[in-house]
TrEMBL record:
Enzyme Commission number(s): 1.8.4.10
NCBIfam families linked: PRK02090.1 (NF002537)
Residue positions binding [4Fe-4S] cluster: C128, C129, C209, C212
Protein name: Adenosine 5'-phosphosulfate reductase
Protein purpose: Catalyzes the formation of sulfite from adenosine 5'-phosphosulfate (APS) using thioredoxin as an electron donor.
Length: 243
C-alpha cells in the first residue's frame, strides 16, 4: 500500500486511472491509513478535507487531526447554518487543535442576483445549493489536487457504493470512512471524548442548512431529515464535478 502511494506510476497524471490504482490498494485500509496515503500522494499543501461540522463530522476530523492537524479544512458557511453548527465548529477547532480551517461563503453577487429575497431554498433548492455550496467549494478547492470527505456507505442512497478513492474531475477524492460502520463512528467519539453536535439530542441526526433540515424520521436513515418532501437527497457537492 505505501509503496504504491509513494512511487509514481504511468497513471500518476491521469486521475481516473490513478484513482482506480489507489482504490485497489486502499480498499481494506483503515481511515488513518487512507488519510496518510492521501498525504503521501499529493502533500499537505495540495490536500484538503471538506467538513460540514455536522452530526458525524467530529469523527473524521479527529482521525485527520491524529494524522496531521495542519491539513487544510474547508467549511462551507452557506449563510443558512444553525448557530449551533457554527459554535460546534469553534469547539472542535479548539479541542482537536486544527490549525487551518477555512470558512468559505457564497459570492455576494450571486446571492444578490439569484436570491435577493432569501427564498431560493424553497423555490429552487438545487440552485440554492449550487450558489451556496457547489460554487464556493469549486473556488475553495482550486489550489488542491485531492480532497477528503466523510461520506459512508451505510448512509445509503447514492452513497451505498462509493469507492475509497475516486476521480473528481482533475482531482482525487478520498473517502476514508467509506467502509466504517455506525459502531465504528460511535467508538471514535467515545475514545476521543468528542462532544456531540448540540442538535443531535433534539432528533436532528443529520444537520445542514436551517430551512432544509428537519428531525430524522428514522435512526436507520440519518439523512431522512434533509429536504423532506422535496425528492432531493444530495446538495450537489458529491454529484457534480468540482473542477
Amino acid at each position: 500500500m505505501s509503496e504504491l502511494a509513494q512511487s509514481p506510476s504511468p497513471s500518476a497524471n491521469q486521475p481516473d486511472a490513478r484513482a482506480r490504482d489507489l482504490d485497489a490498494a486502499l480498499r481494506t485500509a483503515s481511515p488513518p491509513e487512507i488519510i496518510a496515503a492521501a498525504l503521501r500522494e499529493v502533500g499537505r499543501d495540495r490536500l484538503a478535507l471538506v467538513s460540514s461540522f455536522g452530526t458525524e463530522s467530529a469523527a473524521l476530523l479527529k482521525v485527520m487531526a491524529d494524522v496531521d492537524p495542519a491539513i487544510p479544512v474547508i467549511f462551507l458557511d452557506t449563510g443558512w447554518l444553525f448557530a449551533e453548527t457554527l459554535a460546534y465548529r469553534d469547539t472542535l477547532i479548539d479541542q482537536l487543535g486544527l490549525t487551518d480551517v477555512r470558512s468559505v461563503k457564497p459570492l455576494a453577487a450571486d446571492l444578490d442576483r439569484d436570491d435577493p429575497a432569501h427564498e431560493l431554498w424553497f423555490s429552487d433548492p438545487d440552485k440554492c445549493c449550487f450558489i451556496r455550496k457547489v460554487e464556493p467549494l469549486k473556488r475553495a478547492l482550486a489550489p488542491f489536487d485531492a480532497w477528503l470527505n466523510g461520506r459512508k456507505r451505510f448512509q445509503g442512497g447514492v452513497r451505498a457504493e462509493i469507492p475509497v478513492v475516486e476521480a473528481d474531475g482533475v482531482r482525487l477524492k478520498f473517502n476514508p470512512f467509506a467502509n466504517v460502520s455506525r459502531d465504528d463512528i460511535n467508538a471514535i467519539y467515545a475514545l476521543g471524548k468528542l462532544p456531540p453536535h448540540p442538535l443531535l439530542a433534539s432528533g436532528f441526526l443529520s444537520v445542514g442548512c436551517m430551512p432544509c433540515t428537519s428531525r430524522a424520521e428514522s435512526e436507520q436513515d440519518t439523512r431522512s431529515g434533509r429536504w423532506q418532501g422535496r425528492g432531493k437527497t444530495e446538495c450537489g457537492i458529491h454529484t457534480m464535478k468540482t473542477s
